[in-house]
């Protein structure tokens, strides 16, 4: 029976004014050497005609239109909502997947049958000699980053390894776990929802494997802007929610002071730049969602099975590693 009749994975692409990026993303996906997938493109009420102009190579692809902009979180959940596949893959519209991207991810799931989260190596599309990200990293200071961001490609690990969470620009999730945890938190709207999901999964005892040979090129915030108000506002607001929602009580006395100091350092460093205003607005706006976040926190912490000391070992404590945006991988043998 054809793999396209019973696909192994559904690939979800969330588009909002993706322009020419979207068609290039779809075309690269259609060229995959692994054919056993279906793809759902969720258009978040785009205004640029990118969804209208989209052409699909074959019947594996379909378009779902949202009447409003649901953000990346809501759009991803919508695209995953009726899936029957064992796996869900998230793929940003500003990525170009290597032809063997899925072919590398599929055997990784067979080699690691108890693992439910897998990440991909991201290379900067405009500077292919540099790493865009090799898994998401989280520090004791409450600062997240994409591992190895800006490092030379030659420095990237060549073997699969454990990371804190997969970057949802090109990530793979076991559908059963995605559904059980409620998918991405739609209150986050956009940014850090992938670390939040990975954190929740980790607290329930699930690790993430970064697949070294599963590669995509990524333009990185090409649709929202790397230093735009939208990006900085949501990133800083969601940092507060991420910490308060997921960090166990035993670590909060350490993390909250470190987080506050880190935020002060960031504000001081950018005080003469316009981004300072967006960062502060996001930080200040986070207070409006605190009650909802604390309700979610109570549920998450009740279901936690990961001991605090094991979580602490997976956080980055070295401030120099934060500033360098280190890879911070762990050998799979330590699972």
Individual helix count:
11
Q: Helix share of residues?
A: 25-40%
How many extended strands? 12
Rounded to an integer in angstroms, the radius of gyration calculated over CA atoms is 19 Å
Q: Termini separation (Å)?
A: 36 Å
Question: Spans with pLDDT under 50 lasting ≥5 residues?
Answer: none
Provide a quick synopsis of the model.
This protein has 335 residues and is an alpha/beta fold.
Tell me what the structure shows.
Helices cover 36% and strands 20% of the residues. The chain is an alpha/beta fold and 335 residues long. The chain has a domain at 229-312. The strands form two sheets. Strands 1, 2, 3, 4, 5, 6, 7, 10, 11 and 12 form a ten-stranded mixed β-sheet that branches. The model has no long low-confidence stretch (mean pLDDT 93).
């Amino acid at each position: 029976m054809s793999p396209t009749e019973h696909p192994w994975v559904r690939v979800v692409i969330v588009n909002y004014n993706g322009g020419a990026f979207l068609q290039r993303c779809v075309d690269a996906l259609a060229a995959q050497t692994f054919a056993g997938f279906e793809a759902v493109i969720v258009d978040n009420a785009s205004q640029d005609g990118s969804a209208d102009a989209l052409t699909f190579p074959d019947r594996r692809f379909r378009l779902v239109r949202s009447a409003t902009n649901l953000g990346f979180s809501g759009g991803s959940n919508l695209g995953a909502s009726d899936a029957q596949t064992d796996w869900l893959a998230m793929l940003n519209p500003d990525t170009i997947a290597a032809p063997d991207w899925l072919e590398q991810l599929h055997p990784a799931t067979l080699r690691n049958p108890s693992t439910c989260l897998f990440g991909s190596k991201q290379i900067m599309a405009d500077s292919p000699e540099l790493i865009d990200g090799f898994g998401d990293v989280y520090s004791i200071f409450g600062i997240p980053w994409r591992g190895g961001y800006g490092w030379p490609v030659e420095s990237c690990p060549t073997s699969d390894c454990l990371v804190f969470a997969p970057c949802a620009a090109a990530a793979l999730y076991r559908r059963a776990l995605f559904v059980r945890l409620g998918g991405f938190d739609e209150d986050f709207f956009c940014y850090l929802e992938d670390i939040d999901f990975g954190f929740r999964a980790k607290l329930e005892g699930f690790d993430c494997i970064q697949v070294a040979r599963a590669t995509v090129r990524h333009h990185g915030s090409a649709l929202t802007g790397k230093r735009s108000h939208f990006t900085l506002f949501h990133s800083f607001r969601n940092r507060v929610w991420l910490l308060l929602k997921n960090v166990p009580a035993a670590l909060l006395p350490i993390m909250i002071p470190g987080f506050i100091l880190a935020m002060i350092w960031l504000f001081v460093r950018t005080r003469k730049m316009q981004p300072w205003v967006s960062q502060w607005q996001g930080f200040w706006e986070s207070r409006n969602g605190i009650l909802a976040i604390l309700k979610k926190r109570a549920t998450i912490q009740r279901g936690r099975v990961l001991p605090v000391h094991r979580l602490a070992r997976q956080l980055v404590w070295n401030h120099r590693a934060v500033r360098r945006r280190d890879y911070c991988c762990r050998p799979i043998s330590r699972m």
